[in-house]
Design the sequence.
């Protein structure tokens, strides 16, 4: 998410949207958008929810993944 938000800022994106669809496999990350400081903007009776975040206000979290470009 840190990389996605960084690139969104660089591209001038004002809002990043996310969608949560409840399934047995997705239950593990049901609260992920909230933990990433996205704001819930809409939801339906079936449990599908939509979230938004402002890349300019996103606070990068601790990251355990490193992205390297080019040969290593």
Sequence:
């Amino acid at each position: 998410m840190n990389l996605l938000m960084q690139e969104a800022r660089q591209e001038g994106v004002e809002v990043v949207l996310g969608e949560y669809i409840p399934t047995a496999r997705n239950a593990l990350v049901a609260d992920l958008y909230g933990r990433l400081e996205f704001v819930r903007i809409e939801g339906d009776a079936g449990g599908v929810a939509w979230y938004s975040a402002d890349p300019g206000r996103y606070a990068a979290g601790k990251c355990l993944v490193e992205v390297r470009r080019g040969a290593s």
Remarks:
- DSSP finds two helices and three strands in the chain.
